Hints:
Distance between the termini: 71 Å
Largest sheet: 5 strands, mixed
CATH topology of the largest domain: D-Maltodextrin-Binding Protein, domain 2
Strand order of the largest sheet: 5-1-6-13-7
Number of strands: 13
CATH superfamily of the largest domain: Periplasmic binding protein-like II
Oligomer: single chain
Amino acid sequence: MRCFxxxxxxxxxxxxxxxxxxxxxxxxxxxxTGSPDAPPYLWRDPQHPTRLIGVSADLLTxxxxxxxxxxxxxxxxxxxxxxxxxxxxRMDLLIDAPLTVAGLDTLDYVHxxxxxxxxxxxxxxxSSLNFRxxxxxxxxxxxxxxxxxxxxxxxxxxxxxxxxxxxxxLTQTLQQLLLGKVDYVIAGRYSAGVVARTLGMxxxxxxxxxxxxxxxxxxxLSHDSxxxxxxxxxxxxxxxxxxxxxGLAQEVLQRNLDRWQAxxxxxVGDIKKQ
Length: 274
């Protein structure tokens, strides 16, 4: 009887160990994609156009490495095409997914968000527009890039209370502000700052201190991905919680801001950034 019990315990231990090993080793490689025009968070590598680089890419690569998983960050086309690649299961995850009700039909979002994107109110220096709340923008013409991805709540509020035009990209949006065609622009803290400097208008614009919106950019696994299983989702959530508390994101952000700024040497007309 003692021999039988010992063998049973040994078998149970081996089975549990095998189950843990299978869970940890089931997915050794992830293929990720995202928006190719959202610097400093994500954009195409000019040296390797099939790859994506940026803050989100660096942070996910670090998290995956700690889990012993290899991540390939591939260009999947423009934003809508990248989303389709993930929805279909041809790629495993979207690295910069905004949290939407529609997205829940095809994606499992990992919480917390990988990064937060601050949207500020930008005005011309010396502007009489004194922004403290959205109410202060009432009656003033403004603009926000069509490529912006605010939260759903802010989108509804803006549509109801603000007079916004939607230029194709951030370059055109900031140019409208500088030319006086609009009185303010709602744009990302870092993307607008770098584009403004690239266009030579860094000293002509100013931004609000507090964000008007702060959407999160999430890692989202496709429902149809073979890698989408509880162990991976749980480990990703754990690592991202640790990441949020570490302060590492700010260091990675600054490094990518410097990298993106260094790339902006081509003609202004070619810059199509968010």
